[in-house]
Design a protein that fits this description.
alpha/beta; TIM Barrel; two-stranded antiparallel sheet; 10 strands; 45% helix; globular; binds 5-thio-alpha-D-glucopyranose; binds manganese (II) ion
Length: 395
């Protein structure tokens, strides 16, 4: 599976990253205790490098235990940096754990008690210092506990300004320190809260336009999270790309209608995964490849031992590379190209940009509505071609 002659074998050039918390997930769930030993971060770095990843991402407490002294912190960071250097691994993204400690039980940056908000802000600042020290360029905000069960307790016009003020504060902090962070906001509709604030990437995209330093802030959409909300992930990522706000991405898989599963990339909804890879890689040739990190926010099944964890990690990357090849094959297929070329009417399109003359030209344009209504769009054939490429009988 990992022989160098294998063209699907990942290399650092593919820009694959994993969170320490992903391959490090010990298999705890709401009904059961951990099934695996904690893998030390330095070994995670070594193993992921061996498998061909580009880097690892982390929360402050994935590396440094909550409440560690400054001396402990520095010792851990030095040891971790050495592992990174020894294995040529990078840390492109950092984030803060604002959800595990019970102080965050009713939110962090949106909590009612200003001391809780102060604690959260202080924790993010320290975590940004760590991220900057490790060379991270992207800083993720996942507001897992920013939400509610009892909505009578807090009006949206109270928690929205709190969240805005916090991000404005942290943008200023980043600038004052001379850090070059780009913030990426990650939405999720529910879990662990009954409802999480800013449920989808679309909500985040609007909220960003209200921030003082909106140019510093983008989104980090996750496959599973948009699926939990029943949404089309490719549409949402496409909207973020079009807005030039796709700063990071969390790749995984999810069965619709279930709890947040964080499954191995491509293990469910292969067609969705194919269309996503096609979009990110710019396979159609219409738009460029997206340059960001291909980050996997997923974990191995609870049935697995450590060997299974590395199978899981290799599988995420291998599936991505296979889908990239499939997407290129699909877009190079003459039958596909012919259908896509026929869809565009190059003659009329320029008239659809407003000018007085174009408005007049539209009025004069001959349009046979009944005839147009009868033109088939060849989508059945196009989609069947996609499915055949995916099944490996074409291309
Ligand atoms: C947590 C969550 C993820 C977020 C991580 C970043 S932590 O595992 O389920 O979706 O991306 O805070
Ligand atoms: Mn995520
Ligand atoms: Mn998730």
């Amino acid at each position: 599976m990992h022989s160098p002659s294998d063209s699907y074998a990942p290399t650092p050039g593919d820009q694959f990253t994993f969170g320490l918390w992903t391959v490090g997930n010990p298999g705890r769930d709401p009904f059961g205790e951990p099934v695996r030993e904690r893998i030390p971060p330095t070994r995670i770095v070594a193993e992921l490098a061996r498998l061909g990843a580009y880097g690892v991402n982390l929360h402050d407490n994935d590396l440094i235990p909550f409440g560690a002294t400054a001396v402990e912190r520095d010792r851990i960071v030095t040891e971790f940096r050495k592992a990174l250097d020894d294995h040529g691994m990078k840390v492109p993204m950092c984030t803060t754990n604002l959800f595990t400690h019970p102080i965050f039980k009713d939110g962090a940056l949106t909590a009612d008690d200003p001391k809780v908000r102060a604690f959260a802000l202080r924790k993010v600042m320290a975590s940004m210092d760590l991220g900057a020290e490790l060379g991270a360029g992207v800083y993720v905000f996942w507001g897992g506990r920013e939400g509610a069960e009892a909505d009578a307790a807090r009006d949206p016009r109270v928690w929205i300004p709190r969240y805005r003020e916090s991000l404005d504060f942290l943008c200023e902090y980043s600038r004052d320190q001379g850090y070059l962070f780009r913030f990426a906001l990650e939405a999720k509709p529910n879990e662990p809260r009954g409802d999480i604030y800013f449920a989808t990437t679309g909500h985040m995209l609007h909220f960003i336009t209200t921030l003082t330093h909106e140019e510093m802030v983008g989104v980090n959409p996750e496959v599973a999270h948009e699926n939990l909300a029943g949404l089309n992930f490719v549409h949402n990522v496409g909207q973020a790309l079009e807005a030039e706000k796709l700063f990071h991405i969390d790749l995984n898989a999810q069965k619709i209608g279930r709890y947040d599963q964080d499954l191995r990339f491509g293990s469910e909804d292969l067609k969705g995964a194919f269309l996503l890879v096609r979009l990110l890689e710019g396979a159609s040739g219409q738009f460029p490849r997206w340059e960001g990190m291909r980050h996997f926010d997923a974990h191995a099944y609870r049935t697995e031992d450590e060997a299974g964890v590395w199978e899981f990690a290799a599988g995420c990357m291998r599936t991505y590379n296979i889908l990239r090849e499939k997407a290129r094959g699909f877009d190079a297929d003459p039958a596909v190209r012919e259908i896509l070329a026929e869809i565009v009417d190059a003659e009329v399109s320029p008239l659809l940009r407003y000018s007085k003359a174009n408005a007049e030209a539209l009025r004069a344009l001959e349009i046979d509505a009944d005839r147009l209504a009868q033109v088939g769009q060849q989508h059945e054939r196009l989609d069947q071609l996609l499915v055949e490429h995916l099944m490996g009988v074409r291309g």
